[in-house]
Specification:
There is one protein chain. It contains 8 helices and 14 strands. By secondary structure, it is of the alpha+beta class. The strands form 3 sheets. A 7-stranded mixed sheet has the order 3-4-5-6-7-8-9, sandwiched between helices. Strands 11-10-12-14-13 form a 5-stranded mixed sheet, sandwiched between helices. Helix 2 packs antiparallel against helix 3 and helix 5 packs across helix 8. It is globular, with a radius of gyration of 20 Å. It binds 2,5-anhydro-1,6-di-O-phosphono-D-glucitol and manganese (II) ion (2 copies).
């Protein structure tokens, strides 16, 4: 690889900081810490089968879902990596019911970190791509003491940074600070993330739709009509292709690069869908919008929704602008709800 392209994650972050005088350098060190945590989690994920780390802990998480050991490992790794830099006043994780306060002897900072430590955990044992999702805000609560729940329930458009890591055929770290979306691939030879996707832009429309068709009979009528339309209409001689990994990070990473649409709808049984607004939908919407795409709950922009509780769910229609606008039209014009 020619040296001129030898752009590592740390160098990219520091150059980004210089380019934005308002940057305090704190976000740079937060991102560097997240890069370190990503490498450590990737190490565990890549040997999960060997380290006997897979398989159920027998415990259930706050949502009554079986928790795999890797979820807990990733959760604990992220807290350990992020709780001593003095950057955060509060954190929140999919794996903790309540907000997470910094240990008493640690310096309190002005940022808030929300994360899904391991996304797609049902895929761990089958060696299918999984990931980590993170979202960073500035605190809104006054003073310099510990943050509170309100700090964690901000609308998504207020995010400072959002990103994800996909542990797949390679480990890739994708983030945006609102000025472009950048992807870095881990070179295991010397453990550095190298810039592999400079300024990702999502295609205006795609030819792939991605959702769990097992739920078809619970879908809103407009969604059923939309999917049938994609299957019946031919684009350059072929209908849309269906692709569904079952890990949000993998499905959205593909959508970001290839275009198309990812959907986890609200349906008759679960009107708010399955995915969590604060640490799945908001960070992914922030990234996809920064790449020129669109993300709504079928009606309202995801980033404008005011979270009322930490683990609340939201329907999500996210991806290429033209594809999301078209499904919204089908939902709006459908005369029947289901
Ligand atoms: P998590 O493992 O963090 O709970 O997330 C799993 C989510 C998301 O990754 C994926 O898009 C969705 O679950 C798949 O749900 P279905 O199996 O219902 O399709
Ligand atoms: Mn998840
Ligand atoms: Mn998870």
């Amino acid at each position: 690889m020619a040296l001129k392209r030898f752009m590592t994650l740390p160098r990219h972050i520091l150059e980004g900081e210089k380019a934005h005088p308002e940057a305090t350098g704190e976000l740079s060190s937060i991102l560097l810490q997240l890069g370190l945590a990503a490498k450590l989690i990737s190490l565990e994920v890549n040997k999960a089968g060997l380290a006997n780390i897979i398989g159920f802990t027998g415990q259930e998480n706050v949502h009554g879902e079986q928790v795999k050991k890797l979820d807990i490992f990733a959760h604990e790794m992220l807290i350990k990596a992020m709780d001593h830099g003095g950057h955060f006043c509060v954190m929140a994780s999919e794996e903790e019911e309540d907000i997470i306060h910094l240990p008493p002897n640690k310096k309190i900072g002005k940022y808030v970190l929300l994360f899904d430590p391991l996304d797609g955990s049902s895929n761990i044992d089958a060696n299918i791509s999984i990931g980590t999702i993170f979202s960073i805000y500035k605190r809104i609560s006054p003073g310099n003491g510990p943050g509170n729940l309100e700090d964690c329930l901000q609308q998504g458009y207020k995010q400072e940074v959002a990103g994800y890591i996909v542990y797949g055929s390679s480990t890739i770290f994708v983030y945006t600070a609102g000025h472009g979306v950048y992807g870095f691939t881990l070179d295991p030879a010397f453990g550095e993330f190298l810039l592999s996707h400079d300024n990702i832009r999502i295609p205006k429309s795609g030819r792939i739709y991605s959702l769990n068709e097992g739920n078809y009979f619970s879908w809103p009528k407009g969604l059923k009509d939309y999917i049938k339309y994609l299957q019946a209409n031919y684009y350059n001689g072929k209908p849309y292709q269906a692709r569904y990994v079952g890990s949000m990070v993998a499905d959205i990473h593909r959508t970001l690069l290839y275009g198309g649409i990812f959907i986890y709808p609200g349906d008759r049984r679960n009107p708010k869908g399955k995915l969590r607004l604060c640490y799945e939908c908001n960070p992914m919407a922030f990234i996809v919008e920064a790449a020129g795409g669109r993300a709504t709950d079928g009606k309202e922009r995801i980033l404008d929704k005011k979270p009322e509780s930490l683990h609340e769910r939201s329907p999500i229609y996210i991806g290429s602008e033209d594809d999301v606008l078209l499904v919204e039209k089908f939902l709006r014009e459908s005369r029947e709800a289901y």
